[in-house]
């Protein structure tokens, strides 16, 4: 019986050594995950503060009459070469028939 007990003890010792080697890895992974979560929380708080500041600036601009709505976009001046390239590419309607078909 002693021999069977010894053979039973050997696998238990191997399992115990495997579990012991696996246990230190888990706390390291958990601590790394906690560290990453803390960094994400700090980044989210910073982004929330920036978003609030941006909303305040936009609201203040609207109250001062600096809203973007209703503004006419500025025309971009084209050089002769750029205009010719647009005509050759078919981007310019030379005959004004854009709405008619």
Question: What secondary-structure arrangement, pairings included, does this model have?
Answer:
Layout: H1 2-22, H2 25-63, H3 80-89
Query: What's the mean pLDDT score?
Result: 78
As a whole number of angstroms, the C-alpha radius of gyration is 36 Å
The separation of the N and C termini measures 101 Å
Give the SSE order as H and E letters: HHH
The low-confidence runs, each spanning 5 or more residues with pLDDT under 50, are: none
Estimated share of beta-strand residues = under 5%
The helix fraction, in percent, is: 55-70%
Structural class determined from secondary elements:
mainly alpha
Topology, number of strands:
0
Q: Give the overall silhouette.
A: elongated
Sketch the major β-sheet.
Answer: none
Q: Tally the helices.
A: 3
């Amino acid at each position: 019986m002693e021999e069977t007990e010894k053979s039973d003890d050997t696998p238990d010792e191997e399992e115990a050594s495997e579990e012991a080697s696996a246990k230190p890895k888990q706390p390291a992974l958990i601590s790394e995950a906690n560290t990453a979560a803390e960094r994400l929380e700090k980044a989210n708080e910073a982004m929330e503060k920036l978003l609030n500041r941006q909303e305040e600036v936009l609201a203040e601009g609207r109250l001062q009459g600096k809203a973007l709505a209703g503004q006419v976009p500025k025309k971009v001046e084209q050089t002769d070469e750029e205009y010719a390239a647009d005509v050759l590419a078919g981007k310019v309607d030379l005959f004004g028939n854009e709405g008619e078909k």
